[in-house]
Amino acid sequence: MKWCAEGCGLEFLLVLCGLELSWSCPHHCICYTGPSTVSCQAHNFLSVPEGIPPHSERIFLQNNKIHRLLQGHFSPTTVTLWIYSNNITYIQPSTFHGFVQLEELDLGDNRHLRSLAADTFHGLGRLNALHLYHCGLSALPSNVFQGLRNLQYLYLQDNHLEFLQDDIFVDLHNLSHLFLHGNRLWSLHQNTFRGLGALDRLLLHHNQLQWVDRLAFHDLRRLTTLYLFNNSLTELSGECLALLPALEYLRLNDNPWECDCKAFSLWEWLKRFRGSTSSVGCQSPAELAGQDLKQLRKEDFPDCPGSKSLHQRTTNTWDETNKVSLIKEPHPVPPPHPHRPHHNVAPQYPSPPTPPPHPPPALNAETPGSGGQPGLAPPQRPGRGRNCTRQRIRMGKGKGQNEVHTLKEMADKEYSSPDFEGGKYDHTSPDGTVTRRKHKCPPRTTVHPPSGVQQANNRATFSHPLLYVYVLLGVLLPLTTTYVPR
């Protein structure tokens, strides 16, 4: 009786605290309702514990030593599943099949995972956030993200990715944040990011990028933040960045920039850009080493051809971009890179114009930045142009190590800068001119129908000489009939 009284008293206290004592709750775990939750974190489990209630909505298994995930471990009613910081080495492809309610899946910090089956996440139509950071991944199957049309946050940072298949993100129409920093990517191709029309932030710093196709960003019309610092870039065309009309934050520092004629289009684009940028330090030629590309003058490019303006080149690029976005052209398979390991699935991409003979050396871990936040807080500027393409989206939940909140605070801090009060700002161009602009959007230009429609309409109308003939005949015909002899 004494034991019953003590047990009933403990159960009553748990109910008062909002907890539900359940005989089906796994040992060493806590189960409660509102919503139905199973918390088994930090108990050194070697496998998924048995006895998880079948209708659990939230399951927390982080900070254990779980090795494998198999079909039947979880219920299809699961909405949130955290299994980060374990020792997962294998995920059975059917583990998450039928999980139509799943919204957040955190598999991050499983450094021995290393590979995924192509259909691991198929059918997760409601998935909003997928965490695969620090998992030792060296490659991704080409259709691993197929059907994830509601995904907004994708965390792939701190892996060993060397390349990305063409159209690997093509189904992610609602993706707003893509974290790829801390990998080993060495190139960005024409269709790497195709389909990401809603992307807001793209972090590519701390990779080994050596070249970027000039159409690599052709679908990123809403991108506001692009980080490319601490890579191995020697050049980047201005036409490539001109495809980003909503861009506000750009980081290009800590790359070995060659400030010769190859940098002229980038210099032109930076001169017109109204957003926040980092320094662009020149490494060569010797007479410009250590200088900031943004501060150079046109006279520093004396022998560079400038027959076309940046606007003309951008227009030509857009013509090609429209064709690229609508029609997927087959790419010839080039010979494998001489210094890159072979993979089971060879990527199909055009060869770079001047591929370097060796991969870049290991990058140091020092990240530029300010305020103790490595590589995230942009330098303060007197002001910047307003993003007139869309309304800014406030972000939701995020984890500190995934940098979502840090980036949001960064953007909000710049928007609330005292320099924005009064509605004006001073902008100093690299050529030394100071322009004062009002802080408001320019009026939208009228959108005309496509040229094909205009030509069709023109063919459907009468030409001017023929019209005059018809009018003249209409006047003379009655007069002629009046004077005909009866």
TrEMBL record:
Key words, A-Z? Cell membrane, Cell projection, Glycoprotein, Leucine-rich repeat, Lipoprotein, Membrane, Receptor, Repeat, Signal
Compartment(s) where it occurs, according to its Swiss-Prot or TrEMBL record: Cell membrane; Cell projection; Membrane raft; Membrane
The record's section on Pfam families has: LRR_8
Region: Disordered, residue numbers: 298-456
Q: Which residue ranges have biased composition labelled Pro residues?
A: 349-362
Does the entry feature the keyword Repeat, yes or no?
Answer: yes
Q: Where is the composition biased (Basic residues)?
A: 383-397
Source species taxonomy: Eukaryota, Metazoa, Chordata, Craniata, Vertebrata
Point out the signal peptide segment: 1-24
- Entry protein name: LRRCT domain-containing protein
- Family note: Belongs to the Nogo receptor family.
- Basic and acidic residues compositional bias, start-end: 320-331, 400-429
